[in-house]
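User: ok so my PI wants both of these folded by tonight, can you help

Assistant: No problem, let's get them done. Here's the first:
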Amino acid sequence: MYYALEGHNTKAVDMMIWANARQSEEFRVAKENVGDVEVSTVFLGIDHNWGDGPPLLFETMVFGGPLDQEQERYSTWAEAEIGHKNMVER
């Protein structure tokens, strides 16, 4: 359920390691402004699939505009980068 980053790779860890990693890791995959709209993609560190399929550890979210609060989640850093670009294009 808890994950840490090793470079752009993820690994399952216990809660104490996860909590310590939250203080030192860089979590932003990408951030871009399109006019007044912000698109942000980050590493969450907790599986948001809750054990039902592959872990969803990254999230893109839109702040502002017609897609405000739109979100997508991904399993890997590479998927998150692609998803971020796709959301910016939308």
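One down. Here's the second:
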Amino acid sequence: ERLSVMVEELLDFSRLQSGRMVLQPMKLDIIAELSEAVLTFEQRAIREKKDLIYNENDDIIAVTGDKNRLRQVFVNIIDNAIKYSSSGGTVTINAYEDEKEKKVVVSVTDTGCGIKPSDLAKVKTKFFKANHTRRGSGIGLAVADEIIAMHKGTMDITSPGEGLGTTVSIILPAKN
């Protein structure tokens, strides 16, 4: 299963780099896609004794995007947050629309191992792994960042330092 996931990530990255990945944009409710991704991880979080807190927004928040690719990004980010958090840790997911800025913000914050300040600039680089004690190929964040860029958005990663958790913020243009 791990090898299959790694091969899929490599294929996606290859398609992104060669310009062969084509989005299927449509108007969609970002909360519905995020909720589906969160649901995927609820049982795993329970099994691993980690709190998964999803502050689900009751509003419909419309964006134009490829629902499968956006869900892929959400799954990757939530998977990382759970993977890099220890038993007893917490992963908190929020989404809101900044109507003034006409942007949608999805944030995933964990209480995990964090990222050294010197590694923050490199974590979205393909094959870079800040922490070699956890499984993974080091491609997921690079692919997620490219997909968000294709949606004319940004993906910001912040961490106060090692042992202090990480926040991934995905910022997308809101649909008018």
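The mean pLDDT is 87. Strands lie at 26-29, 51-55, 62-65, 90-98, 103-110, 154-158, 166-173. Good luck tonight!
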